[in-house]
Amino acid sequence: MPSGEKSKYTDKQKRQAEHIEKSYEQRGVSKDEAEERAWRTVNKQDGGGKKPGGSGRRTSDR
Fold first, then answer.
1. Where are the domains of the chain?
2. Euclidean distance between CA atoms 57 and 41, whole angstroms
3. How far apart are CA 61 and CA 14, in angstroms?
4. Per residue in 27-40, is it b (16+ CB within 10 Å) or e — as a string?
5. What's the predicted TM-score (pTM) here?
6. For 3-62, what is each residue's pLDDT tens digit?
7. Phi and psi at residue 60, in whole multiples of 5°?
8. In this structure, what DSSP letter does residue 53 have?
9. DSSP secondary structure letter of residue 55
């Protein structure tokens, strides 16, 4: 079952994942597998969520 926080994704990325998921389901892939593949595809294309506030190291002000 796919898990993870999806709030860091843009609306466009969410729409893309939904469209990809529907395509996989039409090909006979199970709902869970289709959702997982769709998010993997979006991550590969865009490098993950684009909204600020994600993980990252702070840098000093030096």
1. 11-46
2. 26
3. 35
4. eebeeeebbbbbbe
5. 0.72
6. 677 888 889 999 999 999 999 999 999 999 999 999 999 999 888 777 776 555 556 666
7. -75, 165
8. S
9. S
